[in-house]
Amino acid sequence: MGYEPVLLARVGKRDSLSLEGYRRDGGYTTLARVLKEMTGEQVTDQVKNSGLRGRGGAGFPTGLKWTFLPKGHPGPIYLCVNVDESEPCTFNNRVLVEQDPHQVLEGIILACYAFKATTAYFYIRYEYGTGMRNMQKAINEAYAAGLLGKNILGSSYSLDVFVHRGAGAYICGEETGLIESLEGKRAWPRIKPPFPAIEGAFRKPTIVNNPETLANVVHIMKNGIDWFKSIGVPPDPKNPRDMGSYGPKLYCISGHVNKPGLVELPLGVTVRELVDKHAGGVWKGKKAKGCIPGGNSMGLMTEKEFDTPMDFNGPGRVGCLGLGTGAVTVFDEDTSIVDVLHNLCRFFQHESCGQCTPCREGTGWMFKIMDRLKAGRGRKEDLAVLEEVADKIGIMPGTTICGLADGAGWPVKTAIRKYRAEFEQYLRSGQASKAKALPLAAAH
Amino acid sequence: MNPANTHSHPAENGKPACSSGPLPAKLREQIIALLPRYPNKQAVTLPALHLVQDELRRVPLWAIREIAGILDLSPAEVHDTMSFYGFFRTDENPLGKTRLWVCRSLACQLRGGDELLAEFCDKLGVAPTQTTADGKITLEFAECIGACEGAPAVMVDDTHRHSLDKPEKVDALIKELRAR
Amino acid sequence: MATVYVNDEPVDIGDAKLNCVQAAEKAGVLIPHYCYHPALSVVASCRMCLVEVGEKKPDGTIAMQPKVVPGCQTPVKDGTVIVTRSAKAKDAQERTLESLLLNHPLDCPVCDKAGECSLQDYSFAFGKAESRMQDEKKTPPNKPAIGDNIDLFTDRCIMCSRCVRFTREIAGTAELHITHRGDHAEIDVFPGDPINNKLATNVVDLCPVGALASRDFLYTQRVWNLKTVDSVCPGCSTGCSIHLDGNKGVVYRLRPRTNPKAQGYFMCDEGRLGYHYANSAERLREPLLRTSGYGWSKSTHREAVQAVQLGFNENSLRNITGVWGVLSPFMTVEEAYLLASYIKGFGREARLVMGPVPVVGEDDRYPKDSKGNPQAKTKFTIRAEKAPNRLGVAAILEHFHGSVVGFDAFLEALDKKQVKAAFLAGGYLPNGKGHWFPAAAIEKLSTLSFLAVQEFFTSPLSEKAQVVFPSASWAEKEGTYLNHAGLAQEIHWISAPPGESRTDGQVYLDLLGRTGLMRAPQLRREIAKAVPALAALSTGLLGEQGVLPGETGPEPSKLSKRIPVA
Do C370 and B79 touch (CB under 8 A)? Predict the structure, then answer.
C-alpha cells in the first residue's frame, strides 16, 4: 500500500508523551508558523478546502462547521473537545490522547486560533483516566512553555484549556448532551435550533470537535491541502452532494479476529482488507458471519458485504447508517445474532437519556422484546414490532431530539432484515440463546 | 476545627469515612478553586462530585447540600445531575477501596466478557454493584470502556486492564486488589 | 399582517410571534401537547405535538418539510402551512401515545385526573384502539406526601418535566428534580426538602396526567360531577382569576384560570386551599336577634332586616353623626355601593369608613434564587394586602363620602362614645390569626345603642350585636372585585348561602327597600352611571378577563345565558 501513518506515527515510540519528545519530532513548529504567518480566517479556509470531515461519527465538514460561528462576535467563544468516545467498539481517541497528547493539543490550539476561541474544554470520559492524566501533564507543560495561556509564543492570541471529566454516560458524546453535561446539568441534548455554533456552551458560540479530527488539522496545516486530498477517496462525480472522503482514518478492529488493534489507513479501505490484512483474519480458523462496521449505532454488515469501502459513502450503500467511528467488530459464524442484537439493545436502553418519548419508551420496549427472544419466548409479532419501532424513532423521521434513537434502531433493522432466517429459527423453535443466564444486575 | 477529625481517612473495612458534614476544608478549597474556570457556578457540579467521591468513596446527602450551597443551586439540582450518571454512590452503597468494572459491551462480550463478569462474581462472592465483605473491591459492569483491542477488558478505578482471558489473570488481579 | 394556513384554513395572526401550537389554537385546531406550556421554557421532549409544516410560496405552490417537526418549537411566519392530521402526523401522534401507554398503569378507575386527563383525551382523539405491548410494565413505587399537599404517583408520570421546570423557572425554589435516566427516570424531591413553596400545588394543574395530585382534593370528587364557575380568589389583591369547582353546594376545589390581564397562569396555595371555611358546618345559617338580656333567638331574614331598619331609623333621628357604616375590603363593589347607599340615605353626616385592611408582611415575588431572595424578573407576586377589593370599596367610599377614611377613625370615635348605631360589614376571611375586630375594642361596643354585624361564625363581635347576619362567602354570590391594578373582574356563585341566609347584597337591597333580587350586571350599570371612577362597569358585563380602568366590557348578547334585566 505504501501509506505512511501520520496520526499514529509517534504512538508507541519512546517518550511519545512529553513536550520535549514532541518538539524533537518537529512538534509545534506548525503552530509557531501559523501564528506568525496566517490569520484565523486563512486557517479556517485551509481546513475547509482540505475536505476534512469530522471523525466523531457524523462526518460533517469541519472547516464548514467553523464558519457557522457568528462573525465579529465579541466572545467568549468555546471549543469543546469531545473525548467522550463511548460508542462501543471504539478506542482510537483513547490511544491518541493517551499516547500522543501533544499532537491533539497542537490541533486544539490551531483550531481555537482559527475561529478565535477563548477557552477550550477538554471533555474526557471518566474511564480514560490514563489519557486524562497524560493530557493534563501535556497541558501543564504547554502552559509552562508559553504554548497556552496569554500571548501564545509571543503572539497576540491567548487560550486556556481545561480538562473536564465525564461520569459514564454515552449521551455525553452527543454535541449538546456534552454541552449540558459541561454546564453541570443532566446530559439531555438540546433542541435545535439554536445550533451550538450560535448558542452553545453557556449560551455562547461553541464548536464541538473530535480529537482525531483535531489531530488531522495539525497535518493539514503542516503538509497542505494537496497532500491531504491525495489520501482517501475523492467525491463521486455523479453525486453533486458527495463531499468526498479525504484523509487518513484510524480504524479500530476488534471482536473475533486474531489481532485486534488500531490501524491508520487512507479512508476507503474495505472491511475485508481491514480484517484479513490488518487484523490477522478471523480467529480460530473460522469464517466471519458479519460485523458492526462503525460502532453499535451503524447497524450490521454481513460477511458478503465485507467488500464495502469504509468511507463516508460505502456503508450507506449496504443499508448501514454511515461510517460512524469506523470501528469494525467482527463476529464469527458461530455467533448468535440474537445475542449480538440483545447486547446492542441493552446498551441503548441503558444509555437512553430518557428525555423524549419515542427513544425512552422505544429503547426499553425493544430491549424487553429482545430479552424474551433471547430466552426463547419470542412471539411471531415481535419481529414486525421491532422493525417498525426501529424505523420510526430518530431524528431522521423527525420523532426524537437527537440521533441516539437512530443508532438504537439501526442495528435492530439491519439485524432483522439481513439475518431474518436466524430470527425466525429462534421464534419457530422456541430455543433460548446458548449463552448462560448470567448474574447481570438490571440497569440502574 | 476538631483535631480528632477523621475526615482524611479513606474507607476502612467497608465502613464509610466521614459520616456527617462538613466537607474537609481541603476539599472545599479544591471545589472553590475550580470556579474561575467556568462562566457559571453550576459547571463545577461534576468536578465537585468527583472530588467528593474520590475522597469519601460516595457522595453523602449532606455533601450534596454543601456542594449546592457553594454553587448557588438547590440540593435537588445537584442530585438531579448526580443520579443521571449512575456513577456516583450514596451512603447506602458506598464504593469499596477499589472499583472493578467489567465491560459488557459487544467487543468484550464476543471475547468472553459476560463469562468474565460471572467469574468475578463467583470468585469475589458478590453480585454486580456490590462490595466484597472486606470492603476492598466493588464489582460493577460497565458499558464499552474503550479497550476493545484488549477484550475482554476491565477497569480498576480509572485505568484499563486488558486481556483478562485466562483464569490465572483473573486470580492475579483479585490478589493484587485484595492486597491494596 | 401574517397569514398562516392550518389544515388549509387561513388564519390571520397579525404580528404576534407564535409557534405552531399557538397558531393552530387561533384557528380553533388543537395540536395535542404535554410538555409545552406558554409560561415555561420550550423543551419539545414529549413529541406529542409532531405535525407537518411547510411554506406557501408567493406563486401558490406549497413546499412541505420532509419530516414531522414539533409544533411547539417551530415558529410560524407569513405563509407557513401547518398540517395536523395528515397520515404522517397521525402516525406520529398514534406512536407517541402508544409509547406513553407502554408503561402507564391502567389506573383510570382510581386516578383523580380521570375526566380531565390529557392522556385520556388525546388517546381517545389521536390514539390507536389497541396496544402491541405484551411485556411487563415498570412499577416504580409511589411517593405520597413529597410536599404537604402533593402526592406523586410515580408510575403514572410521562416525563414531560413541566413540574420540574415550574419549580425552577416560576417558583425558583427548584425542589423537584429528575433522578436516574432512560425509562428508569423518576420525579423526586431531595430528602429533607419537600415541595412546600407557596406556589407548590400549581404543579398538580400543570401535570397532564394523574401523577401529581393535590392531597386536599384527592379522592373527594369525580371531576365530571363538579360544576365550575369563573371567579376570583379573595385571598389577596393580586386577584388571581380562578375556576371554582363545586358540587351540591359544597366547594371542592379552586384552580387558577389563565388571564393575562390578571395574574397570568398560576395561583398561590394559600388562596387555593383557603376555601374550607365556606364548607364549615359551624357557619351561621340564619340571622340572630338579640332578645332582652343576653339571649339570642334565630330569626327570619325579614325580621332581621326590619330590626335593622328600626334600629337605624331611631338612632339616625337622634344623632346622625352617630350612624356609622364600616365597609369591608372583602365586599364586592355592588355590596359596598348598596350598603353605602343605605347608610348615606340617612343623611350626609352619616359616617362611612373602610374596615381594617389585612396586611401580612411584604409582597412576595417569585421566582426566588437559591438563597431565597426574589430574582430580578418577577413572574408571580403574592401580595401583602390580603383582601380582594380594597380599591373597589375605596372607589365607593370616595364617591359617597368624599374620601376614604380608615378604620382608626371608627376606633377613635368608639373610644369617645360617639358611635351610636353601626353596621359592620363582614366577609373577612378566617386566616387563623384571630378575629378582624381588635379584641381590645370589643368591650367598648357596649356603648352603642344599635349594632348589626355580618359574620361567618359566632364570635366576640357577634356577642355584642343586636342583629347578626350570616355572611355569604365569595363562592355564594356574584359581584365585582378590583385587584391591585384596578382590574375589575366578575365573581360568580357555585352554591347558595347556607340555611336561611341571603347574600350580603340581598340584605342591603332589602334594607334599602328595593324590590327584586340581587343581580350584578344590572347593578354594575347603575353604579357606572353614578360613580364616574367605575365607568368601566358600564355594560354590566366584564368579560372573562375583566376590564381595566379606561376599558369597557362586552355588550350583553341576546344569546348570553345570563339574561340582563334592564
Answer: no
Q: How far is CA A409 from CA A93, A186, A298, A397, C90, in A?
A: 25, 23, 9, 11, 21
Chain centroid to CA C413: how far? 37
What is the spatial distance between Cα C423 and Cα C455, in angstroms, rounded to a whole number?
12
- Please report the ipTM that was assigned to this predicted complex: 0.94
CB pairs under 8 A between A and C: 101
* Closest-approach residue (CA) in chain A for B154: A127
Q: Among A408-417, B160-169, C549-558, which is the least confidently predicted range? A: C549-558
Contact call for B158 and A129, based on CB within 8 A: yes
Going by pLDDT thresholds of 50, 70 and 90, the confidence category of residue C433 is confident
Q: In 10 A of CB C349, how many CB atoms?
A: 12
Residue B4 within a domain: no
Same domain (yes/no): B136, B105:
yes
What is the dotted CATH code of the domain comprising A19-230? 3.40.50.11540
User: In this predicted model, what pLDDT tens digit does every residue of A92-125 receive, in sequence order?
Assistant: 999 999 999 999 999 999 999 999 999 999 999 9
- Choose among C209, C148, C159: nearest CA to C182: C159
pLDDT surpassing 60 at residue B133:
yes
Residues B102 and B170 in one domain: yes
Contact A84, A127 (CB under 8 A): no
- What was the pLDDT predicted at C561? 60
How do residues C405-420 score in pLDDT, each as one tens digit?
Answer: 999 999 999 999 999 9
Q: Does A90 touch chain B (CB under 8 A)?
A: yes
Whether the CB-CB separation of A117 and A111 falls below 8 Å is answered with: yes
Between the alpha carbon of residue A318 and those of residues A45, A269, A303, A327, C379, the distances in Å are: 34, 15, 12, 16, 55
**DSSP structural state of residue C534:** G
Strands C80-83 and C2-6: parallel
pTM of the model: 0.95
Q: Which domain holds residue B153?
A: 98-178
Question: Contact, B162 vs B45, CB < 8 A?
Answer: no
* B105's grid cell: 459491551
Neighbours of chain B (3+ CB pairs under 8 A): A, C
Grid cell, residue C199, equals 406556589
Q: Given an 8 Å threshold on Cβ–Cβ distance, is C45 in contact with A350?
A: no
Q: Assign residue C56 a region: left if phi > 0, alpha if psi is -120 to 50, beta otherwise?
A: beta
Question: Does one domain contain both B174 and B122?
Answer: yes
Compute the nearest-CA separation of A232 from chain B (Å): 25
Pairing type for strands A119-124 and A78-83 reads parallel
Residue B68, class by beta-carbon neighbours within 10 Å (0-12 exposed, 13-18 middle, 19+ buried)?
buried
Query: Which residue in chain A is spatially nearest to C133 when comparing CA positions?
Result: A365
Distance in angstroms (rounded) separating the CA atoms of residues C528 and A89: 79
CB contact under 8 A, C181 and B84: yes
Q: Is A391 within 8 Å of A158 (Cβ atoms)?
A: no
Please provide the CATH number assigned to the domain covering C288-359+388-537. 3.40.50.740
Q: What is the pLDDT of residues A387-419, one digit of tens each?
A: 999 999 999 999 999 999 999 999 999 999 999
Query: What CATH architecture applies to the domain C2-96?
Result: Roll (3.10)
Residue C230 sits at φ, ψ, to 5 deg, of -80, 135
Closest-CA residue of A relative to C88 is A397
Closest Cβ–Cβ partner in A361, A368, A397 for C99: A361
- Restricting to C residues 18-57, those with a Cβ less than 8 Å away from any Cβ of A are 42-48, 50
Residue C566 clears pLDDT 70, i.e. is over it: no
